[in-house]
Amino acid sequence: MVEHTWEEFIQFSREGYEQVQRELKEVNMLIKQTAAEVDRFAQANSRAVARTRQIEGSFDTVPREDIRKAYTALVENQRRLFTMRGQLEKLQSDQKHLSRIADIYQRIMEYTAPGDVVTTDEETAEEEESYTPLTTVISVIRAQEEERLRLSREMHDGPAQSLTNLVLQAEICERLFERDPERAKVELEELKKNVVSTFQKVKTFIFDLRPMMLDDLGLVPTLKRYVNGLKETGVTGISIQVHGKDRRLNQYKEVTIFRVVQTLIHIARNQSQATEIKITLEMGEEEVRLHFESNGRGFELDQDLTSMDADRLGLPTQKNRIEALGGNIQFESAPGQGFNVRLTLPAPPDEE
Q1: Which of 96, 235, 308, 329 is most deeply buried (CB count within 10 A of its CB)?
Q2: In terms of domains, do 127 and 21 share one?
Q3: To the nearest whole percent, how much of the chain has pLDDT over 70?
Q4: In which domain, by residue range, is 215 found?
Q5: Looking at residues 254-262, what average pLDDT do you find?
């Protein structure tokens, strides 16, 4: 049995609160600086828009090079403006996230009675289910906020930016219809290609957000479709093999495994720079086993996941999720040795 006094717990909360306050102060300063940059780019964008409208008023007399430069400047200014707005939104989201954590620390310090004792014992764990460790609460909040930030960035950098470009292309076509039909036809062809590309990005985004076929067909078909979808977008060197009888699992377990695979692929490709990824899924009668192998440059990773890389990549959160379901997950990586993962999750037949 391990005993912790409330004084120790409060001191831990107080230190955490002070750290969060320091981080909040830094974020607030960055928000102020970024907001100023957004205003500056917004003004530059207004000037670029005014310039293009001026050119549109005398389209036939303005040299083609001047037209190209004007529209290039407009697109570039809009790109920078959207990028800075995205950074501002991320900082504001970080600000809200830190404020929530600070509020948790405050509530703990306000409502905890000094001198009480917290006892934890594996044999009495069921009796103490109502007690939620602070680190678990923070981990859940952090995981939720990180997912929201990821989706926000992907939407901003992908579909949102593409839709903006489509609007601009449509306006160019509109101006060219009467003045240069042949050039308008070329622009329309390009616009059509971009519409198809943007539509595919939106479909991919929706699938990543919540693949409906996961509810309808289950884990195995969804994982295969996800891997094939990556291949269709130009991602090479990725394969998946499934052994055993395909069957349905509890919905929350299917979602958990799918999200873990998504995260592992993202880490392997973006952090480890992997060019070959092999996923093996074994559907056993009592458990599901996942073996993830990839090459690449790898990264520093210790067994207890206390390294900066492990924390930054969210590996402790993934480990907590799997262990909360009674499973086990092991990560292996080192510089020059790729990134490999083994996952085991109980899945008896009576859960189907």
Answers
A1: 329
A2: yes
A3: 76
A4: 211-351
A5: 90
